[in-house]
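Listing 4. Sequential folding, example run.
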Amino acid sequence: MRRLGVQNRVGVVLLAALIAIMGVSTGWSASSVSAQDEAVEAAAITPGTDAMVLNGPLNQRATPSTSGTIVQVLSTGTLVQVISGPTAANGYNWWYVTANSTNGYVAGEFLGEVGFIIGDDVVVTSNNVNIRSGPGTTYSIIDQLDTGALAEVIGGPQTANGYTWYQIQYATSLTGWIAGLYLDLSSTPPPSGAFGVQSWILVNDPPVNMRSGAGTSFPVVMTLNIYQAVRVTGVPTTSGGYTWYPVRTAGGTTGYVAGSFFQGGLYLGDYAVVSDGPANIRATASSSGTIIGSAPQGATVFIANNTPVYSGGQSWFRVTYNGTTGWTAGSLLSPE
């Protein structure tokens, strides 16, 4: 679970509603920023904290100006690390941020305080909370959860009908959408012991056959080697005494694997713990790469939003520890 401070989720909802009321679009309008906008933004964003894109697509620019070169476009829900700001220009308050390992400026009026990100363990804070088939009150109610129910965030956020919605996985393998207003971070993971959707898992008992379906009777798509990482793309299915996960390799091959031959459950853009330290941090994704740092046993590192690289029998993740950013072997890491 990540260590990002989550404050009042109501603030995210109110900010989204304010954006809608003020008529702010995803384009770069020249309308001035009201004092009310600035007050909401100031309460949510400060240097050294994390923020979330509430209303994307959002242009990240090389300079704090609507004429600045666009370095990338950020989608709704993207997590950014706020470095400095704000700088007022063209009717916007610009913040210098890191997003997807890229630095640049974004208009703060499209950002809000962090709600939840994929991989968060959460707890339901009210009784009779509706779980819906999609992100909105127009979708059908498929279940209800009460105070204390545990879940894991596997999708979102999406805004609709005045709420910020998150897709959750609960009760081992059930999924649905819930309004974030009724969630809080939990220090206790769901009791399933399963790998979460969007997490990366690594082979620890090779070779492992990836199959076209959830069962040993399905054709083998490819064979995975020691510590090769695949990303979980959906909820598991039980068949033939195994729990099967739909997965995708870094190269884009899809199939199913038996979870009992894997370890990990690491999320990009999240924190992990060094479980087999010290872990060398290298300049390149290779065991021959120059060592530029080291993280001791039990240290917490941040995993960047870079696809793991499989090289030399290891899946390498790009991490940051004590200001040093480089590559470390995923086999040395465990979910926080």
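-- end of first protein; second protein begins --
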Amino acid sequence: MAFKSFFKENRVLLILSLFVLANPELLKAANQEKECLKNIMPLEKQLLAVTEDGGVWAEFEGRPGLRKESATALKVDSKLEQLLNSLHYLCKAINGIPFSDLATYINGFLENKTEKEVRAEFNKHGKTKSEVDLWFKYTYFFNEHHNRKLDPASIQNTIELSKNYFDRYVTYTNKLKRMTSEASLQEANNLIVDVDSFLESDPNHSKAAFENAQVPYWDIDENYGGS
């Protein structure tokens, strides 16, 4: 009886697990994502060790000579969060652009209707041409690229290069109390510039930024879903 109850409550998960195990490519993809996420866990811990105490922002706020520059400190913290978020995306997207509820939604309509008919339907519900244009543009982008692959070895290299910035971040926060206000501000600005430069120059981070930039805001009334 206990087994029957467990199966009833978890049958969808069990069926999906069996499907993955029976499909070598899906199993390989799942393992690659899992290994990638495992490799960025130390960086998550480094960031959390600083931000759980308020981050660089809290250090600047606690010093009269730096309090007026707290916006810069906040930017340092956010840049490292941006870097980590980009790594998370790359791991999740290593075997294709992650699931998109918007693309799934639009594709569902296109199974039985033409694009012109779907556009007319959205128009009846008050959606503007410009926003619907963005929805279709993204859906076609997703359809074309959602099965693209990233090189796991290249992603691992990006993770290794990213580690330098998390190390610098931790080292910087550890020595902040011993630094002059001028030196603290200068190093904060240097870190911001360097992280920005890395995010733009690293091919994988720039790809993550490009793909995320394609996702439009969408909001449809409750009769038509939304996000």
